[in-house]
């Protein structure tokens, strides 16, 4: 199991299903040149959009920032820069 060693919390899990929407509304988009305007629009439209979760899962989660961070969600949404092995076998 891996834990976040170095990362920035960008959206707290208390936002629930709105985490991707809050992410799209608040993140500096210049960090993600590979994410399209259409993707941002879908996320900003919220969880009632039928493409919301697929867009988040396939087009944003795992996306790398220009400074080497990776979007990761475990309830909270993080930009992770380094992982730490939690001591368990993979």
Assign an overall shape: globular
Number of strands: 3
The proportion of residues in beta strands is 25-35%
- Low-confidence parts lasting 5 or more residues at pLDDT below 50? none
Order of H and E elements: EHHHEE
Average residue-wise pLDDT? 91
- Classify the secondary structure makeup into a structural class: alpha+beta
Question: Biggest sheet, open or closed, and with what strands and sense?
Answer: 3 strands, antiparallel
Number of helices: 3
Radius of gyration: 13 Å
Write down the domain tally: 1
Which descriptors would you attach to this protein?
29% helix, alpha+beta, 90 residues
Structure description:
- The chain has a 3-stranded antiparallel beta sheet.
- The protein has helices spanning 19-26, 37-45, 52-60, and strands spanning 2-11, 70-74, 76-85.
- It has one domain (2-85).
- By secondary structure, it is of the alpha+beta class.
- α1 (19-26) crosses α2 (37-45) and α2 (37-45) packs across α3 (52-60).
- The chain has 3 helices and 3 strands.
Concise summary:
It is built from three helices and three strands. The protein is α+β, with helices and mostly antiparallel strands and 90 residues long. A three-stranded antiparallel β-sheet has the order 1-3-2.
List the helices and strands and how they pair.
Layout: E1 2-11, H1 19-26, H2 37-45, H3 52-60, E2 70-74, E3 76-85
Helix pairs in contact: 1-2, 2-3
């Amino acid at each position: 199991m891996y834990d976040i060693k170095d990362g920035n919390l960008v959206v707290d899990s208390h936002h629930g299903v709105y985490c991707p929407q809050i992410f799209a509304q608040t993140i500096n988009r210049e960090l993600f040149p590979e994410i399209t305007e259409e993707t941002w629009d879908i996320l900003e439209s919220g969880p009632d959009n039928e493409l919301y979760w697929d867009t988040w899962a396939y087009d944003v989660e795992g996306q790398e920032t220009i400074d080497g961070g990776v979007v990761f969600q475990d309830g909270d949404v993080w930009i992770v820069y380094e992982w730490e092995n939690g001591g368990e076998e993979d």
